[in-house]
Write a structure and sequence with these properties.
The structure holds three protein chains of three kinds. By secondary structure, chain A is mainly alpha-helical. Chain A is built from six helices and no strands. Chain A folds into two domains: about 90 residues, no CATH class; about 55 residues, no CATH class. Chain C starts with a helix and ends in a 35-residue tail after the last helix. Classes of the chains: A mainly alpha, B alpha+beta, C mainly alpha.
């Protein structure tokens, strides 16, 4: 099992690792993976990659963990799987697109489509001509029309 | 003093209840005395809450540390402004502020309408007072701002308070919450009028005309609140983010979105008498989202699900929301006949349709933000496992929606009311589309291939062009007729229809903001540890740390770095980021230093020194175009003010007046 | 001390709320049953003005302009019909309160014929001597 080997190696490297300086923790690789992981420090809603606190008690160890795993050749998926194993699904910065959590991605678009449907239904409904004037006898209608035309005569300038 | 404050709140609660009952019974039994008395109760509630707020503020300024609230949110060394701002620094105080603002609004509403709408006003008063009483229940019985510190049965006092959260000790933060609350609370008024007119079946759109300015002002406050919050986050949190999709931020955005939709769709009702149901739904949603937002902010339901059970006020909010929504729905369904449309849609290709799509997109973005905010709670409830919904989710869902909205901002105004032909649209769209494509082509030639940034900047040009063309064409028409020169003609044009051209200005401001948002695609940052005197590079800047200083005052200890900024070898400025440790709360904060320019901001955060003290840790960022957000904000503000100026031309029309009754013999009655 | 202040406060608030003299009651407003119709009329005029302006700006073709204008006139006719209907239902006589001079100047049609019943008179009258309804343009 590659996962088993990776985690064993992680453990080994973790023991040997020294505190890394902040600048070493911002490689493109760490960013790429960190972007997919949530910072769970509780004070921010950032991703691990974006957490601005240098000494964040969650993001910093997380970045170190990513760096260690990458240094021994773990793929992005390995790293992410490892984080999910340790911290649960909430380690991901956005919900996984599977099972119930798929709904989080689908619902906004379902709502949009439903709204679109409602708009079209509305348009169809209101495209029918208004029955308002039909009740008046034609000669009266003409009379009112000519009055209306007279009243609006000044608008042509 | 605390007794007097508590008494004021309790009395306000009683009179609020009296006002509700008095209004309803008064209008039901047709007793003008009772109605007037309940209106006076509204003023009384205002006076009582003003007294209570005054007492709390006095306690904060004078440092009465027997009060739990003062001890928790103020201390002796804070500057007076922040002592005052501590009024809204904590839960109890900010609920009191909410209640006070609402009572002020209610008093203003009752006063300005004292001789109008005799049928509707009692219901308006009652609606406002129900909301008022709800908040009074919270501050009178659940989270009292006048709680004293006590040991056993004796009142005690602490020598000094904890002080306001240092992150909040910043000028925009001092005015951001009241702005937001002025917005949140303000939507109660149009909602109350909507409900009042629905209950009494007022003919016409009186509630819309009466609350038109009110809604715009409230919307402006809300916009200010949101953007001041963004400006605060940008300048204080130390990493240059202005929007983090935090539940509390989302809570302020949600009612803003529905209010924006309302401001647009209300034109359909004013122009054509359509979408009456929808407008009521929108204003009701806005109001309930405001309450919901206050709940999110105050109960911590989302950030920690488990705190919800312990937080005493969440359940009160839920009950209020449930009852309010149920009542509103019942009223709407019961009075559908009253809300019937007066006219029809003449043509699918018309301004009306563009408003429909504008509403659809706004609501879709509102829903997706709400959904994303609540999803962790929902998911934990259903699957038992918590998930995180952070910025990447919101960005992925909302950026396309936002861009589409930007497109509509440009397209909508080009389409005429009632009907438009494809030919005239083709003509209107030709120039802005060419401009858009030219810009996108130019940017790609310059090596920029970020998809969203390209689309966004392209659309910005498109919309700016269409808005400018509206002004240009209108002014040209006036020039041709009145012989004015260009600028006076534009002023004249705007003055003739302030709402329309003010609205266009707001659109222009939104375009500027989008320019600022697009810049985020090109942010650069780097974190370095440098020796004093040595240089590092970010973007086109060479930065040299000159020296480090430290010192303290009574409020905090500070460390301070002086960094020289050079561009192409030439010294262009010195930035001095600072790090503070607040004494009473032991909380560190950073005072970033920003070189703000329209093309890009250089943003330095002094993160600390290395363990031996020889090196400075500096986080340096370059944020292209971010200043355009604040420029856009100013333009939005100006546009909103223009909307509030009365139009020069008011349509003159003959009013029908009753002068007499037709007698049996059809003899005309002399007037 | 605190008790005295509290009692005063309570009494003052109660007194302010409860004691209302008859002259404090606001006069009942003149409710105009025609107001919403007037407003609708105003709205149509405003739409017409907008339409004309947009036409001048070239936002819509001449054909669209004419059709929309006719539609608006039809709406105005409906409002006029509704006004008459309401007037006869309420059994009241109404008169037009003078609009501002600019709009009034536009009215140059001869007014010797009553628009309601068709009776003719030698001079302009405020109200028709035949049916009692106001004749347009009668000075108010």
């Amino acid at each position: 099992m590659s996962r088993l080997r990776v985690s064993a190696l992680t453990l080994f490297v973790a023991v040997l690792s020294l505190a890394q300086t902040a600048s070493q923790l911002t490689t493109p690789g760490i960013r790429r993976v960190g972007e997919r992981l949530a910072c769970l420090c509780g004070a921010c809603k950032n991703t691990v990659a974006n957490c601005p606190m240098l000494e964040c008690h969650y993001a910093k160890p997380a970045k170190e963990k990513i760096a260690q795993m990458q240094s021994i050749g773990a793929t992005d998926e390995n790293v992410i799987a490892r984080f999910i194993k340790d911290d649960g699904l909430k380690a991901l910065s956005s919900p996984p697109a599977e099972g119930f959590n798929l709904l989080s991605w689908v619902m906004p678009f379902v709502a949009l489509l439903a709204g679109l449907g409602a708009v079209f239904a509305w348009i169809r409904h209101y495209r029918k001509p208004a029955p308002a004037m039909a009740e008046l006898p034609p000669e009266l209608l003409d009379q009112y029309r000519s009055r209306a035309e007279k009243e609006t005569a000044g608008f042509d300038e | 003093m605390e007794n007097l404050g508590a008494l004021c709140i309790l009395l306000a609660f009683c009179f609020g209840c009296y006002s509700i009952v008095g209004s309803l019974v008064g209008v039901w039994r047709a007793k003008p005395y009772l109605v007037l008395s309940s209106q006076r109760a509204v003023y009384a509630v205002w006076a009582l809450l003003t007294t209570a707020s005054g007492l709390l503020v006095y306690g904060l300024l004078a440092g009465d540390f027997r009060l739990a609230y003062v001890a928790a949110h103020s201390n002796k060394s804070m500057p007076g402004l922040y002592k005052f701002a501590a009024w809204w620094g904590g839960q109890e105080g900010s609920l009191l502020l909410w209640a006070w603002i609402l009572s002020t609004y209610a008093a203003v509403v009752v006063f300005t309408n004292r001789n109008r709408f005799h049928r509707m006003m009692p219901f308006v008063t009652a609606t406002l007072m129900v909301t008022q009483v709800f908040f009074l229940i919270l501050i009178a019985f659940v989270v009292s701002p006048f709680q004293v510190l006590a040991v056993g049965r004796g009142i005690t006092e602490v020598p000094d308070g904890n002080g306001l959260n240092p992150l909040l000790q910043y000028w925009t933060m001092a005015i951001h919450p009241p702005m937001l609350y002025l917005g949140y609370v303000g939507f109660s008024v149009p909602f109350a009028f909507a409900l009042g007119s629905l209950i009494t079946r007022q003919p016409g759109d009186a509630w819309i005309h009466t609350t038109r300015r009110w809604t715009i002002v409230t919307w402006m406050f809300q916009t200010c609140g949101i953007l001041l919050g963004a400006g605060w986050a940008y300048a204080v949190l130390g990493w240059g983010g202005y929007w983090g999709w935090d539940p509390v931020e989302n809570a302020s955005l949600l009612p803003w979105i529905t209010a924006t939709a309302f401001l647009h769709s209300v034109m359909m009702q004013e122009k054509k008498g359509m979408m009456k149901i929808w407008n009521i739904v929108l204003i009701a949603s806005t109001f309930f989202l405001c309450i919901f937002g206050t709940m999110l902010t105050r109960s911590g339901i989302v950030s920690s699900v488990h705190a919800f059970a312990q937080s005493p006020i969440g359940n009160y909010f839920l009950v209020f929301l449930a009852l309010g929504i149920a009542l509103t729905l019942y009223l709407i369904l019961d009075r559908l006949d009253y809300l019937k449309s007066e006219s029809r849609l003449e043509n699918v290709l018309s301004r009306e349709s563009s408003f429909l799509f504008n509403n659809l997109i706004l609501l879709a973005s509102c829903f997706s933000v709400l959904w994303g905010t609540l999803f962790p709670v929902i998911s934990e409830y259903v699957t038992g496992e918590k998930v995180s919904v952070d910025a990447p989710f919101f960005n992925r869902v909302n950026i396309p929606i936002g861009l589409f909205l930007l497109l509509l901002t440009g397209v909508g105004p080009l389409i005429a009311w009632r009907r438009s032909s494809v030919d005239s649209l083709k003509r209107a769209f030709l120039a802005p589309t060419i401009a858009m494509l030219a810009l996108i082509g130019g940017l790609m030639a310059a090596g920029i291939f970020h998809f969203y940034a390209l689309v966004s900047l392209g659309l910005c040009v498109f919309v700016a062009w269409t808005v400018a063309a509206e002004f240009w064409k209108g002014a040209a028409a006036i020039r041709a007729k009145d012989g004015l020169s260009l600028l006076p003609a534009m002023v004249e044009l705007t003055h003739r229809n302030t709402r329309r051209y003010g609205g266009y200005l707001v659109h222009m401001g939104i375009v500027f903001m989008f320019i600022g948002f697009s810049g985020a695609a090109f942010n650069k940052d780097s974190t370095v540890e440098v020796n004093i005197g040595s240089a590092f590079r970010i973007g086109s800047y060479d930065l040299t740390v000159r020296d480090l200083k430290e010192g303290e005052n009574e409020n905090y200890i500070w460390h301070h770095a002086r960094v020289e900024v050079r561009k192409a070898g030439e010294l262009i400025g010195t930035l001095e980021p600072e790090r503070r440790l607040y004494k009473s709360s032991k909380q560190p904060t950073s005072e970033v230093s920003i070189r703000r320019r329209l093309n890009e901001d250089l943003y330095l955060n002094f993160a600390g020194t290395s363990n031996d003290g020889s090196k400075a840790v500096i986080q340096a960022y370059v944020f292209p175009l971010v200043s355009w957000i604040w420029v856009g904000f100013l333009v939005v503000l100006i546009g909103t003010w223009v909307c509030l100026v009365p139009s020069k031309i008011k349509m003159q029309f003959a009013r029908t007046e009753v002068v007499g009754v037709v007698s049996e013999r059809h003899v005309p009655v002399k007037s | 001390m605190i008790t005295a202040v509290s009692i005063t406060l309570v009494l003052a608030v109660v007194a302010y709320t409860m004691f209302i003299r008859p002259q404090d009651l606001p006069a009942p407003p003149a409710e105009n049953p025609f107001r919403h119709l007037d407003e609708r009329k105003a709205r149509i005029y405003e739409n017409l003005r907008d339409l004309q302006f947009e036409f001048r700006l070239g936002k819509l073709s001449g054909d669209d302009y004419q059709r929309t204008k006719q539609g608006l006139q039809k709406e105005l006719a409906a409002v006029l019909a509704e006004t008459d209907e309401l007037r006869s239902r309420l059994g009241v006589v109404t008169q037009s309160k003078a609009p501002a001079p600019r709009a009034a100047a536009a009215k140059t049609t001869p007014r010797e014929t009553c628009p309601h019943c068709g009776a003719t008179f030698k001079q302009a009258l405020k109200f028709c001597g035949d049916c009692g309804k106001p004749m347009k343009g009668g000075a108010a």
